[in-house]
Amino acid sequence: MNSSIIYILVFVQLWLFRLPCRESVCIPSERETLLKFKNNLNDPSNRLWSWNHNHTNCCHWYGVLCHNVTSHLLQLHLNSSPSTAFYRYYDGYDWEGYRGFQFGGEISPCLADLKHLNYLDLSANDFEGMAIPSFLGTMTSLTHLDLSYTGFIWKIPFQIGNLSNLVYLDLGSDFLEPLFAENLEWVSSMWKLEYLHLRNANLSKAFHWLHTLQSLPSLTHLYLSYCTLPHYNEPSLLNFSSLQTLHLSATIYSPAISFVPKWIFKLKKLVSLQFRGNEFPGPILGGIRNLTLLQNLDLFKNSFSSSIPDCLYGLHHLKFLNLMASNLHGTISDALGNLTSLVRLDLSYNQLQGTIPTSLGNLCNLRDINFSNLKLNQQVNELLEILAPCISHGLTNLAVENHIGAFKNIDMLHFYDNSIGGALPRSFGKLSSLRYLDLSTNKFSGNPFQRVVNEDDLANLTSLRGIDASGNNFTLKVGPNWLPNFQLSYLDVRSWKLGPSFPSWILSQNKLLYLDMSNTGIIDSIPTQMWEALSQDLYLNLSHNHIHGEIGTTLKNPISIDNTDLSSNHLCGKLPYLSSDVCRLDLSSNSFSESMHDYLCNNQDKPMRLEFLNLASNNLSGEIPDCWMNWTFLVDVNLQSNHFVGNLPQSMGSLAELQALQISNNTLSGIYPTSLKKNNQWISLDLGENYLSGTIPSWVGEKLLNVKILRLRSNSFAGHIPNEICQMSLLQVLDLAQNNLSGNILSCFSNLSAMTLKNQRRGDEYKNFLGLVTNIDLSSNRLLGEIPREITDLSGLNFLNLSHNQLIGPIPEGIGNMGSLQCIDFSRNQLSGEIPPTISHLSFLSMLDLSYNHLKGKIPTGTQLQTFEAFNFIGNNLCGPPLPINCSSNGKTHSYEGSDEHEVNWFFVGATIGFVVGFWMVIAPLLICRSWRYAYFHLLDHILEPYVNSVLGRKDFHIEHNIADEFLLIL
After folding, report:
1. Whole-angstrom Cα distance, residue 635 to residue 920?
2. How far are the Cα atoms of 517, 745, 827 from residue 782, in angstroms, in the given order?
3. DSSP output for 388-410
4. Which uninterrupted H or E stretch holds 923?
5. Tens-digit pLDDT profile for residues 810-824
């Protein structure tokens, strides 16, 4: 009987296959269900335009898949994963465009009426603030459910456990919206489950999670990265009989554990193990020798504090090995050559030393090697010729050519930030498969004669798509008609010698997305053809050259490159026009002149997407145009050191996203701009060195609560400092120096809580650098009264300047509590009493100026204080080192005036030197991160500029980025 039924079913199936293919026509009731479902969704990009009654066949609707025989709706593909359509090369995804692509709204319960639906993908949409609908648990026909990165919050409904047919379940979430589960018992009924992804879930109360998951017989792929897991008792026996993939990156254990879970090493069928960012101390995983089938091992960013164990070299199936930033030391063993299956190898950012073993040449399958930021000390020709023995797989007895060119399979080489020296061998040019090369920040000498890279060196690199060889002092010497055999999308050759003429071969590279030729000695104008050739660029940096001429004469169309940096050149004439797609523009430190009216006001046809605009240090003049309404995306505007006059335009108040405005060192006049009151996004506001007058309005402290930098120095503001300033709890730089302010110093400054915390806590703040500096400068005003005792609560303050006022009374006794102080200037006031002994507790103090007050008594003894010069204490009744006056036994003191040559306030000179000494504790992070470095020196520009300029008699002092780089590299 059973066999007869089988024969009949086979016959019917064969007969159905013999039928001609017919078009699926959706079932009307299911079409109506989809329309109800659509009505509850937000669809900002109108992707569901086809979902309407005019298109009756819902099987042809967007994201819908029907059964080709029964016409029942089987699958809904409504994900919104970021695609290359939203990718921008220099700073990641175009998130603004992506958010306009996501579905939102609500998920209608009518979805449960689709009884045959087996595949539902709603991933990467925006259902923020909603809980996962429990009715999904009634859709028992589902085999595939993907709700990852959808913004769902709260608990994972236990009803999901009713989906016993699920093969694939992804509930992964991001850091802002972690899901929570009281237990994982609801998973135990999913006997068919092969793929489970719970990234970032809070499972801290799921005490039996390991027992539950190991009982699933079909589970093959398990992703628990960034989860919070409870303490547990490991089972004596593990039944993960089918598990091949395990991701436990950055997992948080509650309570914390300080060892690698041993059960991992019992999973002998594992093919992929990802264990990133767990920071477990101690030696690298010893039990890993048991995982003999591993093909992918990722241990990025741990704290192993050991050498690479020999057992790791026995994992012969490994294809991808990532040990980046895992605190490994010692040398690389010659046993590395045993890993003959390796395709990708990353040992970067460790403490590994010595040389790369010659056995690396055995790894003929390697495509990507990253040895960046190690302590390697080989000559480059030795290093690269190590790869020579690797030849094509079909040849075993062929005598190998003794140069790197035999290693033809390599397509990526990363040797960033090592001490590799010597000359590039000629055979290097025979890596015909090489696609990306990173040789930046090494000690290459190029050709052993003239340090030259010529045409022959590059002739055979036909597959090359990316080069980063910055910081190596190469010289490129090619003929004027040279055309490369490659088409690059990425090229960074900053600090090479390419000039004096503009390199014409760049015009042949019409696929470039990223081009950096900064500081390359170009003394030429920009050819017209360049703007056409690089019209698709997303990043262009030609800064710190000697490029001259008027851009307007070479531009046929507005600049369309997303991120354009032409700063520190000799460009002149009118500002160039921009297309609406440009995001960042830096034309600072050039000679652009005339008004910026045409530049700003002639682009009114559609909104401009510009976010960062830097026109500082040019010769722009006239009033700032009142045409900012169309530039609504601006975040950072720098117009300092020009010749602008008049008032700040009202339309600037319409820039709702503006966070930073620098307009110092101009000739602006009028009162404090009321237009700035409209914006509550301010983080940095610099109106210094102008002719603004009147009082500082109280609304500055009431409205600008997010401000971290407020710089109003060198204006004509009068009146009292408003008490409302103290409400600006995030303030880290307050510079009101050189005005006509009167009244007392506010005792409520102790409410400036960002100045009460030390450097460590501020690393993630504005531009990742501002936390390194805190400053109060109230110098050169007409302030009265005593220094308030409460100011000593600012234990995170680095710079304090109250000089050139009319302050009286003692120096606060608690000044020793301000342990972060590096510079103090109380000079030229009427302070009295003795110097508090606690001042000797300031171990980071690199400059102190108490001159010209009415202080008396002995200068406190302390290592720091006795290292200062005598002129820091003159004009008082003080004694003791460093003054040449001994304190008499009867306590009498003498005034030490010093000589006339000290009438100049040498604090301003010393502060520059003192900064270098006092900031030793922050040099390390600046060396590591270029973006911190540039932003940090940019801030110092504002803080040190008034001190240095007052001595030099200049108004143009600033710290250039390349000087900052060289300075730190020397250190």
Report:
1. 32
2. 50, 10, 14
3. TT---TT-SSSPPPSSGGG-TT-
4. helix 920-928
5. 999 999 999 899 999
Over residues 466-479, the pLDDT tens digits come to 888 787 778 888 88
Arithmetic mean of pLDDT, 595-605? 80
- pLDDT at residue number 741: 97
Kindly report the average pLDDT of the chain as a whole number: 79
The DSSP 8-state label assigned to residue 280 in this structure reads -
C-beta separation of 129 from 152 below 8 A: no
Q: Give the whole-angstrom CA distance, residue 753 versus residue 731.
A: 8
pLDDT digits (tens, 9 = 90+) for 220-258: 999 998 888 887 767 667 778 899 999 988 888 776 666
Question: Could you tell me if residue 225 is left (phi over 0), alpha (psi between -120 and 50 degrees) or otherwise beta?
Answer: beta
Tell me which residue of 533, 526, 661, 538 sits closest to 590, measured CA to CA.
526
Instruction: Select the highest-mean-pLDDT range: 28-32, 306-310, 922-926.
Output: 28-32
- Calpha distance 693→668 (Å, rounded): 10
**Is the distance from CB of 758 to CB of 820 less than 8 angstroms?**
yes
State pLDDT tens for residues 45-98.
Answer: 888 999 988 888 999 999 999 998 899 999 999 988 765 333 433 334 444 555
Cβ partners under 8 Å of residue 546, min gap 6: 499, 521, 522, 523, 569, 570
Rounded distance between C-alpha atoms, residue 882 and residue 875, angstroms: 14
Tell me 947's DSSP state: H
- The end-to-end CA distance of the chain, in Å, is 89
- Contacts of residue 924, defined as CB under 8 A and 6 or more positions apart, other chains included, come to none
User: For residues 403-439, b (16+ Cβ closer than 10 Å) or e, as one string?
Assistant: bbbbbbbbbbbbbbbbebebbbbebbbbbeebbbbbb
* Continuous segment of H or E residues that includes residue 2: helix 2-18
Instruction: Give, in degrees to the nearest 5, the angle at Cα 401 between 389 and 447.
Output: 100
CA distance 547 to 554: 13
Distance CA 223, CA 246 (A): 6
Report the Cα 211 to chain-centroid distance in Å: 40
Predicted pLDDT at 59: 93
Q: Let me know: does 317 contact 339? Beta carbons within 8 Å.
A: no
Contacts of 181 (CB under 8 A, 6+ apart): 155, 156, 198, 201, 202, 203, 205, 206
Stated length of the chain: 971
pLDDT at position 420 is 59
Characterize the bridge pairing of strands 514-516 and 539-541.
Answer: parallel
Cα–Cα distance measured from residue 234 to residue 68, given in angstroms and rounded to the nearest whole number: 48
Give which of 128, 114, 121, 149 is closest to 42, Cα–Cα.
128
Q: Helix or strand or coil: residue 830? A: strand
Q: Distance between CA atoms of 664 and 711, rounded to whole angstroms?
A: 9
**What one-character DSSP code corresponds to residue 282?**
S
Contact 55, 71 (CB under 8 A): no
Asked if pLDDT for residue 953 goes beyond 50, the answer is no
C-beta separation of 294 from 271 below 8 A = yes
